[in-house]
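Notes from hallway chat w/ T.B., transcribed later so I don't forget. T.B. wanted the structure written out for a chain they're using in a teaching module, and asked if we could keep both sequence and structure tokens in one place. Agreed to drop them here.
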Amino acid sequence: MTDKARLVIFASGEGTNLQAILDACAAGTLDAEVVALVADKKCNAIKRAEAAGVPIIFQMWGPYKVAGKLRETYDRDLAVRVMLYEPDLVVLAGWMRLLTMGFLEHYGGMVINLHPALPGTFPGMDAIAGAFAASQNGEITQTGVMVHFVPDEGVDDGPVILSEAVPILRDDTLETLAARVHETEYRVFVKAIQSLIETEIEN
């Protein structure tokens, strides 16, 4: 990587993790620049990117589905569009669509994802709610967040880059737990990305 790693961020929702990355880049705590945002639907992440002057790659799944095209076709087309921005890392920050090998085969070792659970627990959507329900049943006393590589089409099970536990307090509600998990996400995500940048520079 160069001194400023080139990040292409994928997001489908609010974009708070995108904002944490943008803020860290602006503050100099992350030696990177966000060179593009990929969005698959209208979402607040687009507004955050536009406010920061970040180019948008907007590619909806709907037209592909209507035309009877495969997800792999969508992903191959998306891979071509992303290549134009020459990313060092592809960062899934609340991207709500599983990427197929139609995309991943072009970016081996470059795609990372944030998931709001500890490794091996609560894969897929609603991980925080799943952890909270398990705590209410007396099964667990902590959850967490992890950043991991995405080498294939597995769900939240790639090699872990960084993880951190978040305790579930006795008086937690789902909302208070979610707030603490998200605050941990912002910090751990930036730390994980920076560690990858530093490792690459050292090598």
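Follow-up for T.B.: The chain is about 40% helix and 20% strand. Might be a good example for the class.
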